[in-house]
Structure formats: C-alpha cells, structure tokens
UniProtKB/TrEMBL annotation:
Organism from which the protein derives: Mucilaginibacter xinganensis
Keywords of this entry: Membrane, Transmembrane, Transmembrane helix
Keyword Transmembrane helix attributed: yes
Lineage summary: Bacteria, Pseudomonadati, Bacteroidota, Sphingobacteriia, Sphingobacteriales
Protein name according to UniProt: Glycosyltransferase RgtA/B/C/D-like domain-containing protein
Bilayer-crossing regions: 12-32, 62-80, 87-107, 119-138, 143-160, 166-197, 209-227, 270-288, 300-322, 334-352, 359-377
Superkingdom of origin organism: Bacteria
Length: 500
C-alpha cells in the first residue's frame, strides 16, 4: 500500500525536480532577486542568528512584517553558516519543489482522479510566470504558499476523523502562516468557513471546534502583535487609509487574472466583471456543495481558501493602503484558483457516457496546452533577459555594475561618525556598503517632514535613477536646507548639510 502511494506520486517528484532546476536557471547569473523587503528579511534573520534580536538593518524593530520568515531564514543561516541572500536561490528552489510536489500530492486525492489532469496542472504550476517571479525573489510568499498547501492537506486529514488532535494540527499550521504573512488570517478564515459549512459536525461539536481552531490559530499572531506594540508602539507598523476605491481594486484584481490566463490586454476593460464572476461563481459552488452535503473534499478546501483570500485582498486594499493589487499580492491564490477553475472538468467528463466525452476531453487538453505554450513564451522572454542581466532588483547589473555603488563602497570615509545619513534608498546603502542610514520622509504626514528639516547636520545619499514620488524630492530638500555636494558618480550624488 505504501509503495503504491509513493509510486502514485513519482510524477509529482519528477515535476518537483524540474521546478527546482527551473529556479536554478533563472537565478544562475546573479543569485536570488533582492528587493527592499528582501533586505528587511535577510538583515533581521542575520540579527536573530547572531544576537537573538528582531532588529532590521536600520536598527529598528521588525514591525511591518511578521516574524516567522526571518526566523526561518535565521535557522537556515545557523545550520549552513551562509548569509540568506547568498543561500536564497537554493532556499527558493527547494521551496518551489516542495510546492510542486505537495500540489501533486493533493491532486492525487481528488474525487475524480485524472492522471492527465494532474500532469497538466503540474506543468502549469512549473511554468506560471507569477510563481516564477515569486520564487526568484527572497520574499515571504515563497514559504507562505507552501504553508497554505500544508494547511489544505492537514484539513483534509481532519475531515477523515474530525478529531480534536487533527484539528489542533490544522490550527498549528494556520498559526505559523499568520506570522509568516499577516494575510495568513485568510487561512484562519478558510478553516472557519469550512467548519461552519461542515454538515458532519453536530452543533455542539461545531461550536467547540470553531472556538478551538480560532483560539489556537490566532495565538501566535496575537503574540506577534503584542510584541510589536511593546517594541514600537504600533501593532503592524504605520498604515495609511486606502487611496484606491473598491471598483478600482476589482479592476486590478481582474487584470492579474487576465495576465495569469494569458489573455490580451484587450480584456482589461472587463476586469471588474471577471473578478466579480470568478469570486461569485466559486462562492456559489462552495455553498451549493455545502447544501448538497458534499463539502468534505480536497477540492472544496481549495475553493474555500481561494474565495476567502480573493475577498480579503479586494476588501483590505479598499480600506488600507499598500502596493497596488498585483501578481505578487495574489500569488498565494494562484494554485488554489487554478485548481478551483479546472477541477470540475474531470468530474463532468465522467458523467458523460457517450463517445462525445473523448472529443470534449481532447478539446480541454488542447486548450490547456495552448495556455501553457503561451506561458512558455512569456517565461522564455524573461529568462532571455535575466540570464544576461540578472533578476530585476538589487541583484541585477543596473545595481551590481553601477558606478555610484562602486564609488560608495570606495568612499565610505566621507562619512564622519555620529552624523546621521539620509537617503532615498536605505536598503541599497545597507546591502552594498553595510552602512546604516535612514530613508528620507514621505510627503505625508507633514510632521515627519518638519522633523527632518529640523536636523542641523546630516549626509544625504541620493540615487538619481530612483523615482519614488511618495518621498520628498531633492529640489524640495534644497529649498529648505543648504546642501554641499561632497561626492558624485554616474547615477548618484552625496551631499552634506552643514547646519543651515
């Protein structure tokens, strides 16, 4: 029996190995992609490993992000003695392989199992431009997506027994996901929704299991938020009200779905309708299956998460300001959405008794292959760029071969100890020079701007190739402070404020 189980997942193992190699290819030139978030994670991991402190590169406590992903990197750094940025490519390749294998394991348990369907979905996961972007950067989504799949497996095991021990296992995985990304609350929501719809539970047991699951699953998150409040006075860092209304977020969500589905930009005007149709359809399917008493299956756990995550992103983006809805924000939803939108095909084909089902099956396979061919073209174009210039971000040649970066590294003696350093890219300063600096304030709130202008002496490192319109500009600073240029190279300048 055990041998058969492992043989059934041999195809998943092969797909996982291919996925590992694909990430290796994309990161072979310059290593894992590095963004400002990546530097936050890596620097905190280094401080955890070296000093046992949750301090970032800028000497402040880690608040804007939860603690587990840096802790995960710190464990790897402790074991391997390799900096997370250097080890990032192998970490991500391993996590991507784990995601692929786990996805195959889940599909092996579907009610209407189809080997061809499983292969096509595994290929789609390996080729997904959205996932390849995530797994070529040092981002917490790489671990979070894997945790979502572990939650799905654990919840299915709970459905087999409805035991308290199995429920606590589900809740423990959920708790860790909540301190990997704050969006882990969607895993809490998906688990709570499935418990609420479960017709196999008595009312008394349903209430007790919802309370147990809810308490355990949010316990680590509550602890993380309390720690943040103690360290900084803020639970999740400074958050601003949203500037994008609900209808705009429906549009941005829909454009991501269009890109994932390899639709042309001519479909963008219909993006709000596409978003609404997808979320309403999946919600309707889940409620219909609950009404029919067929809620307890892998497919429905997947659908539940897709619905909760999709609604969470659209609603939260309409309340709180963060980066515009994009492929990265929605990436944890890609595999659940892909499965939710396609898992019904084998079910329908089984119900068809005539030979027409073979024709329909062939059409479905051809459509899937056409979709995957279009993603291959997208992937190849990106690979063609990245094998010559590196993964976009601080890993690519625009930064690694920047004359100003070389100048900064060779002229650190320009900065006298005790005088603060400001910059429009504090992460870049830390990554390439290991000097500590402070990012210049945003235009809002005005109090932060006035506090900055009250500084008597400071250095200013200005990267001229960056265009962050949310920060105060160099001309604005020059209007308010007397700056003396003390160094420069192509793409950057160094100024000193002498107290005026």
């Amino acid at each position: 029996m055990y041998l058969k189980r492992y043989l059934n997942n041999l195809d998943s193992l092969i797909a996982a190995i291919i996925g590992f190699y694909v990430i290796y290819l994309f990161t072979a030139y310059s290593g894992v992609g590095i963004s400002p978030d990546s530097i936050m994670y890596a620097s905190t991991a280094t401080n955890i490993q070296a000093h046992g402190t949750l301090i970032t590169f800028n000497k402040g406590p880690l608040v804007f992000f939860p603690v587990f992903y840096p802790f995960f990197l710190a464990i790897i750094q402790f074991i391997t003695r390799v900096d997370p940025i250097e080890a990032g490519a192998m970490i991500n390749a391993s996590l991507f392989a784990a995601v692929i294998f786990t996805s195959g394991w889940i599909m092996e348990k579907f009610i209407s199992h189809s080997r061809i369907y499983k292969w096509l979905i595994l290929i789609a996961i390996i080729l997904s431009p959205g996932l390849l972007e995530i797994y070529t950067f040092l981002w917490s989504e790489t671990l979070f997506i894997f945790e979502i799949l572990l939650f799905i497996i654990a919840y299915w095991k709970y459905l087999q027994t409805h035991s308290t021990n199995a429920l606590i296992s589900v809740a423990a995985i959920t708790a860790v996901s909540c301190i990997t990304r704050y969006a882990g609350v969607t895993v809490v929501g998906a688990g709570g929704l499935m418990l609420l719809l479960d017709n196999k539970l008595t009312v008394k047991k349903k209430i007790s299991h919802i309370l147990i699951f809810g308490f355990v699953s949010v316990s680590l998150l509550v602890g993380n938020l309390i720690l943040n409040r103690i360290n900084s006075g803020l639970s999740t860092g400074t958050r601003y009200p949203s500037v994008t209304p609900f209808i705009d977020n429906l549009y941005y969500f829909g454009t991501v779905i269009c890109d994932w589905g390899s639709l042309s930009k001519t479909a963008y005007p219909f993006a709000p309708v596409i978003t609404s149709a997808v979320l309403l359809a999946l919600t309707g399917i889940l409620l219909w299956k609950a009404f029919k008493g067929r809620i307890n299956s892998y497919e429905n756990i997947v659908i539940a998460f897709a619905v909760v995550y999709g609604l969470f992103i659209v609603i939260s983006a309409s309340i709180s300001r963060y980066e515009r809805i994009n492929s990265r924000l929605l990436s944890p939803m890609f595999i659940p959405l892909l499965i939710s939108c396609t898992s019904w095909v084998p079910d329908v084909l089984i119900l068809i008794k005539s030979k027409a089902k073979y024709v329909l099956a062939a059409v479905a396979i051809l459509l899937m292959l056409a979709f995957e061919y279009s993603t291959v073209l997208t992937d190849y174009q990106r690979y063609d760029d990245e094998r010559d210039y590196g993964v976009p971000g601080y890993s690519d040649d625009d930064w690694n071969k920047s004359e100003f970066i070389v100048y900064l590294k060779n002229h650190k003696n320009l900065f006298k100890p005790g005088i603060p350093i400001y910059t429009d890219a504090d992460e870049a300063v830390y990554l390439f020079t290991r000097m500590s600096s402070t990012v210049i304030p945003h235009k809002e709130p005005k109090a932060d701007v006035q506090k900055f202008y009250a500084q008597k002496q400071f250095y200013l490192i200005w990267f001229t190739n960056l265009y962050n319109t949310e920060l105060i500009s160099l001309p604005d600073i020059m209007k308010n402070k007397k700056l003396v240029k003390i160094g420069a190279a192509k793409e950057g300048e160094i100024y000193y404020c002498d107290g005026k």
